[in-house]
Amino acid sequence: MSAEVELREAVAALCAGDAIGFPTETVYGLGADAGNPAAVRRVFALKGRPANHPLIVHLRDASALGEWAAHVPAAAERLARAFWPGPLTLILPRAAGVIDEVTGGAPTVGLRVPSHPLALALLAAFGGGIAAPSANRFGRVSPTTAAHVRAEFGAEVALVLDGGDCSVGLESTIVSCVGELLLLRPGGIALPDLEAVAGPIRRAERGEGPRASGTLAAHYAPRTPLRVLPADSLRALAGASVAVLARSGRPADYAGPLWIEAGAEAVRFGHDLYADLRRLDASGAAAILVEAVPAGANWDAVRDRLARAAAACDAEDLA
After folding, report:
1. Nearest to 303 by CA among 190, 192, 213
2. What would the mean pLDDT of 3-28 be, rounded to a whole number?
3. Nearest one of 6, 25, 3, 2 to 159, comparing CA atoms
4. Delimiting residues of CATH 3.90.870.10 domain(s) in the chain
5. Is the pTM of this model over 0.85?
6. Residue 82 pLDDT more than 90?
7. Domain 3-203, classified CATH 3.90.870.10, yes or no
8. What are 129-148's pLDDT values in tens digits?
9. How deeply is 29 buried, as exposed, middle or buried, from its count of CB atoms within 10 A (0-12, 13-18, 19+)?
10. Highest CATH level, class, for 226-318
11. pLDDT the model gives residue 1
């Protein structure tokens, strides 16, 4: 099937109220017509997602902001000009016509313009907003390839557009622009870069600010129990039943099922993180140990995802 025919089929599926998988630069999304309540409920049902957990609406370009946001502050306009298309979600007061199913009943809505060319082609051809969380079961590891989406949902999803590996590999940065600027979730754009455009942005405390996608304490978790440890502790505990994700190489005496050397560079580590976690999860290990990553803004998104993944696991299983 040609890419053009596949794109037409994807648009037809969206118009029919179906959910589809599609690529963005961050992760693959499970998309539905953001103006169709039944279609959006279908996404929640497929994921097993709580109905009060908002979705992000993907837009064709920044000119569509006025259709979805009741008010766009100057700081939000600056951020959109600087980083859209790209891995940035803005939380704004919702416009009157935005349906509750998208926002989880909240008075705000999350909006972004993705930079993946296939996502942009889909949005242009569809002509409306596409509500899309990551295309995985709720709380589990996000997909960064079309194969991950197919493995997760099989025939339950009408169609999966294959756009190759996601270039970023971690979800978008989320900034609330309702009153004080708040960083709700670190992602593909670092806080210093955001502040260079918009001025001071405060890191939200746990549970502070508007409800937004992917901000629960426990999230992004493999099924195998996972713990994040300093390098010395990790090496001491890396036994025969333990799989490892480390920034350094495998020691000669390691006899476990899988040791992945992810490298010491933040962008590469983040790009590979979810694919690596899926490989570790499939290794048959009783536990996964991940080497703690450094402090610093360039590691914020990775550190955030690992903390949420570890929070979803029962620490007693790793004893």
Report:
1. 190
2. 96
3. 6
4. 3-203
5. yes
6. yes
7. yes
8. 999 999 999 989 999 999 99
9. buried
10. alpha beta
11. 64
